[in-house]
Design brief:
This protein is α/β, with parallel strands linked by helices and 135 residues long. It has three helices and five strands. The chain has one domain: Peptidoglycan recognition protein-like (Lysozyme-like, 3-Layer(aba) Sandwich), CATH 3.40.80.
Length: 135
């Protein structure tokens, strides 16, 4: 197993009325030349956590940080007009917190980040490092 010391949160950059599944993201990433979905986990609006890329494989979600991180994507991140917004549902927030707690116990010392900390993007459309600073 590879060393994990960062948990990086993303959004799918989809509107509330737009369906988005692991299969959709896998297709989008393959169209961009990836070998498959770049995220290790995707959290649907109803709070269901779906596995993407196996944890034993390096992610493809954050340039310069893929080797030692876990990529987590929640479905959403755009409002109905297509503007960046924290659109996490209560179920997504609960599922993300539970997943982060589990991963932090499995990878002691790992830190939580939003994609925007490492790239000129608004993703995940909220301050993940601040929100999860006490985990």
């Amino acid at each position: 197993m590879r060393r994990i010391d960062e948990l990086i949160i993303h959004c799918s950059a989809t509107r509330p009325d737009q369906e988005c599944t692991v299969s959709d993201i896998d297709r989008w990433h393959r169209e961009r030349g990836f070998s498959g979905i770049g995220y290790h986990y995707v959290i649907y609006r109803d709070g269901t956590v779906v596995s993407g890329r196996p944890l034993c494989r390096q992610g493809a979600h954050c340039t310069g940080h893929n080797a030692n991180s876990v990529g987590i994507c929640y479905v959403g991140g755009l409002d109905s007009r297509g503007r960046a917004a924290d659109t996490r549902t209560p179920a997504q927030k609960a599922a993300l917190l539970k997943l982060l707690r589990r991963l932090k116990s499995e990878y002691p010392g790992s830190t939580v980040h939003g994609h925007s900390e490492f790239a000129a993007k608004e993703c995940p459309c909220f301050d993940a490092a601040y929100e999860y600073r006490r985990l």
